[in-house]
Amino acid sequence: MRLGFLVSGQGWPYLLVPFIPIAVVLEVAGASPTLVFFTSALGVIPTAALMGKATEELAARSGPGIGGLLNVTFGNAPELIIALFALGAGLHEVVKASLIGSILGNILLVLGAAMFVGGLRHERQHFDRTAATVQSGMLLLAAAALAMPAIFELVDGRGLPKPGAEIVNYEAKAETLSLLVALVLIGTYVAGLIFSLKTHRDLFNPPHDEEDEGEPWSVRKSVIALAIAGAFVGLMSEILVGSISEAAKNVGLSEFFIGVIVVAIVGNAAEHWVAVLVAAKDKMDLAVNIAIGSSAQIALFVAPVLVVASYLLGPHPMAFVLNGFELGGVFLAVLIANHVTNEGQSTWFEGVQLLAVYLVLGIAFYFA
Questions:
Q1: Integer Cα distance of 125 and 251 in angstroms
Q2: Of 12, 140, 261, 324, which has the most beta carbons under 10 Å away?
Q3: What string of H, E and C letters represents the secondary structure of the chain?
Q4: What would the pLDDT profile of 89-137 be if each residue is shown by its tens digit?
Q5: C-alpha–C-alpha distance, residues 220 and 58, integer Å
Q6: What's this model's pTM, rounded to 2 decimal places?
Q7: What is the rounded CA–CA span in Å between residue 53 and residue 70?
Q8: For 294-334, how does the pLDDT look when each residue is reduced to its tens digit (9 = 90+)?
Q9: Dihedral sign, CA of 71, 75, 77, 80?
Q10: Rounded to whole angstroms, how far apart are CA atoms 185 and 177?
C-alpha cells in the first residue's frame, strides 16, 4: 500500500492496522481491560474501512441493482457484528445504546460535520430534496415504531430502563411486541429496497462523474478482502465487547455512554470520514445519502434483525424498550433530519447547529 494513499483522506484508517495484533496480544496476556478496550476499538476502524472499500469495489463490478443491494447489506456490517457479540454476552442495553448512538451520530455528527466542512468551501450546497425527504420519512416511521415497546412499558409495564442498566428481563408481552414491530420494519425495509433499487432507481442513483482513484479491484480480490475484513471485524468485536464492562468501571464512564457515543463512533468512523470528504468536494447528495441513509438502515434493518436474533443469542429475547435519554435523543434527531432535508440545501451554520445538538446530547448522556 502506497505511502501517499495512507496519508490521504481515505487512507488514514489503515494506519491503525497495528492496533489489531496489539489488541490480540493484550487480550491473550490478560492486560488491563481499559487498554484492551481502547486498542480493540482502534482496531475496528481499519477493518471497517476495508469492509467498506471491498463492498464499494464489488458493487461497482456488479451493476447498479446488485451493487446497491450489496451496499445496503454490508454498509452497516461492522455495527451489526459488534452488536451480535454484545447480544450473545447479554448486554442488551449496550446493544440498544450503540444502535441509537449510530442513528444520532449519523444524523447529527456526520451530517453536521459534512455541512460545516462543505459550507466553509461553498457558500450554499444543494442536494436532491425528494430522495433525502423519502429517507427522512422512513426514519420517522422507524422512530415511531421503535418507540412503541417503550410506550407500552410506560403505560402497562414496569417502566423504562435506567441508563445504567446492563440487562433487563421484560415480560413476554414486551418481547412479543418488539418482535412484531421488528418484522413490520423489516418488511418496510424490503419495500424501501424495491423502491430505491428498482422502481425509482434514478432518484437514488443520480449520474455523477467518477474520479480516478486507481485501478479497480477484481471481483476475486473484493470478495477475499471482504472475507478478511469480516473475520477481523468479528475478532476485534469479540475483544471489544468482552472488555466493555470492566473498562467502563475503570474509566468512570457508564456502559450507556460508552455504547451510545464511543462504540457508535468507532463502528462508523471510516464511513463518517468519507461523508465529510465528499461534502468538501461539493457532493452533498452523496454526503446526505451516507448520513441519512445509514441511519435509516440501522433503524429499519439492523435493529429489527438484532431483535429477531436475540431469540437465538443471549440469555433471553431482547425487548427493544428504549430508556428516556434514547427516546428523547432519537426523536429530536429525526425531527431535525426532516427539517434539514426538507430545504434541499445547506450552509456551514446548519452544520454548526447539528454539531451543537450532538454535543448537548453527549453531555446529557455523560451525566446519565
A1: 41
A2: 261
A3: CCHHHHCCCCCHHHHHCCHHHHHHHHHHCCCCHHHHHHHHHHHHHHHHHHHHHHHHHHHHHHHHHHHHHHHHHHCCHHHHHHHHHHHHCCCHHHHHHHHHHHHHHHHHHHHHHHHHHHHHHCCCEECCHHHHHHHHHHHHHHHHHHHHHHHHHHHHCCCCCCCCCCCCCCCHHHHHHHHHHHHHHHHHHHHHHHHHHHHCHHHHCCCCCCCCCCCCCCHHHHHHHHHHHHHHHHHHHHHHHHHHHHHHHHHCCCHHHHHHHHHHHHHHHHHHHHHHHHHHCCCHHHHHHHHHHHHHHHHHHHHHHHHHHCCCCCCCCCCCCCCHHHHHHHHHHHHHHHHHHHHCEECHHHHHHHHHHHHHHHHHHHHC
A4: 888 888 899 999 999 999 999 899 999 999 988 888 988 888 788 888 8
A5: 9
A6: 0.84
A7: 12
A8: 888 899 999 999 999 999 987 889 999 999 999 999 999 88
A9: negative
A10: 12
Write the single-letter amino acid at 297.
Q
Q: Residues with Cβ < 8 Å from 70, sequence gap 6 or more?
A: 55, 58, 59, 62
C-alpha cell at 94: 449496550
